[in-house]
Design a protein that fits this description.
This protein is mainly α. The chain is built from 4 helices and no strands. It comes from Candidatus Entotheonella gemina.
């Protein structure tokens, strides 16, 4: 395990220390949690961008909205019907 020294503005450090105390965890654990969350978020966004294959997320959302607009209440559609709706 590695150790680093990080300089923080005093007010940020004070607030983070209070938050750690409120959560009943060490300051070190709080910082580790924040760093893990930031890294996981970045990795997730990279994975999602890779899965999108360069497609515009707004276009995908619009396409999904169009798909939902075509759906009607009733029995669950067969996989062939869903594929046909996606192709339309």
């Amino acid at each position: 395990m590695g150790a680093i020294s990080v300089r923080l503005p005093d007010d940020l450090k004070d607030k983070a220390m209070k938050l750690a105390k409120k959560k009943n965890i060490s300051f070190n654990s709080l910082v580790n949690h924040w760093l893990q969350a930031a890294v996981m978020q970045d990795e997730t966004l990279e994975w999602m961008n890779k899965q999108l294959g360069g497609k515009n997320p707004a276009d995908l959302i619009a396409d999904f909205g169009d798909f939902l607009d075509k759906s009607e209440p009733g029995e669950e559609p067969a996989p062939e019907d869903m594929q046909q709706a996606l192709n339309d």
